[in-house]
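Collaborator request, handled under Task 6.
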Amino acid sequence: QVQLVESGGGLVQAGGSLRLSCAASGSSFSIDNMGWYRQVPGKQRELVAQITSGGTTRYADSVKGRFTISRDNAKNTVYLQMNTLKPEDTAIYSCKADVYLNGVSGTFRYWGRGTQVTVSS
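Structure tokens returned to the collaborator:
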């Protein structure tokens, strides 16, 4: 089994920065894509940023130029550097990983429990 644990959320003023981390733990697995999603009450969860195992990235239009996703494969960790934060970035941010389990065909999608990011004006 694989577990994802996020950290780094908090309260910040508009224009400030936060860095989120998500660490995967377990045994006998490898990770394909990793990403960050966010959700606010009354709205559907949306993709914020994604990074492949090879380092290819993509971002939601609303965060391009402000957020940067990266990963450390040796540590099974993905990061989201968030700069120039806006009140509309306020949400619960969740980590996602598509995981290969040794000896099993295909991938399994795992989610962290999420971390709250609040941006005040």
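The cover message to the collaborator said: "Residues 37 and 47 are 4 Å apart (CA to CA). The mean pLDDT is 97. Please let us know whether this matches your experimental observations."
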